[in-house]
Write a structure and sequence with these properties.
Strand order of the largest sheet: 1-2-3
Number of strands: 3
Pfam families: Spore_YhcN_YlaJ
InterPro entries: Spore_lipoprot_YhcN/YlaJ (IPR014247), Spore_lipoprot_YhcN/YlaJ-like (IPR019076)
Distance between the termini: 62 Å
Protein name: Sporulation protein
Largest sheet: 3 strands, mixed
Low-confidence stretches: 30-51
Mean pLDDT: 72
CATH topology: Alpha-Beta Plaits
Keywords: Signal
Structural class: alpha+beta
Number of helices: 6
Shape: elongated
Order of helices and strands: HHHEEHEHH
């Protein structure tokens, strides 16, 4: 009884290892960042012709959302990471501001993102640690470093955020 069970377990393990969808990536930015390799290594990733427009669109979306956040008064800087149709925007504000003022600024950024079609699924955080992690992730992706554990890192960041979703900023009359 034990040998057939072990054999079945090994067969299941081997068959599950062969199932891989090679077209998906934890981040649409991965494919472009691998192509922007600065020549330090001989490893090159071949990209699909269909992926290039999507990568450019995600980079443009990232830059656009950062600019929207920076335009809000009180925001000193913004960092954004786009993953699929979800974006996380970390904002830098003055550390001496009271929490209530930081909340107002965060709400204003979420409201600005809600009004923009690209920002409807964006999460906003003013946590300095999370904002630094987002900046670091964005920098690594831009430099072409492998993003090992990208989805795990994103899940951890999203889990730590008490999200200020743009959808939550609807004026009282629209509800």
């Amino acid at each position: 009884m034990r040998k057939p069970m072990c054999l079945l377990l090994v067969l299941l393990l081997l068959t599950s290892c062969g199932i891989v969808n090679k077209e998906t990536s934890p981040s649409p930015q991965n494919q472009q960042s691998a192509n922007n390799n600065n020549g330090d290594s001989d490893i090159r990733q071949l990209s699909n012709d269909d992926a290039a427009p999507e990568n450019n669109r995600d980079i443009a979306t990232k830059d656009h959302l950062e600019q929207l956040a920076i335009r809000v008064p009180g925001v000193n800087g913004a960092h954004c990471v786009v993953m699929g149709n979800t974006a996380i925007v970390g904002i830098d504000v003055d550390g001496n501001l009271p929490r209530s003022r930081v909340g107002i600024i965060k709400y204003s950024v979420a409201e600005a993102l809600r009004k923009d079609p690209a920002g409807m699924n964006a999460l906003v955080t003013s946590d300095m640690d999370l904002s630094n992690r987002l900046a670091e992730m964005s920098r690594h992706v831009g430099q072409g470093h492998p993003v090992s554990g990208f989805t795990a890192e994103m899940a951890d960041i999203i889990g730590r955020i008490i999200p200020q979703l743009p959808e939550d900023t609807k004026p009282q009359g629209e509800q």
